[in-house]
Amino acid sequence: MKFVCGGTLFDLQHVVSAAHCFARYSSNARFGVVIGNQYRWDKRPNSQPEKLHRVKQLFVHDGFTMECYCNDLAILRLEMPLDSTHVPACIPHYDPAG
Fold this sequence. Notes:
- The structure is a single chain.
- The chain is mainly beta.
- Helices cover 0% and strands 28% of the residues.
- A five-stranded antiparallel beta sheet has the order 1-2-5-4-3, with no helix packed on it.
- Keywords: Disulfide bond.
């Protein structure tokens, strides 16, 4: 397996990443997500074992361009939702700016 890019677990079935990481691959490329290791090169024992999860769908922002890296956003939908032992990013449900 080849490392492409990092990402953040948004909820139990979606990972947010950067669109430029996937721009060079064809639309039918298959991707997987490794959950359970916070740092790619860190080989210390993790609180959760690493596991590969298949990606069902890749969504790249319609306005993404490689020229300026504008709208550099991708969402990966996993084939199966993760179990509740995984903790997604903590995102407020309100506008923190007021």
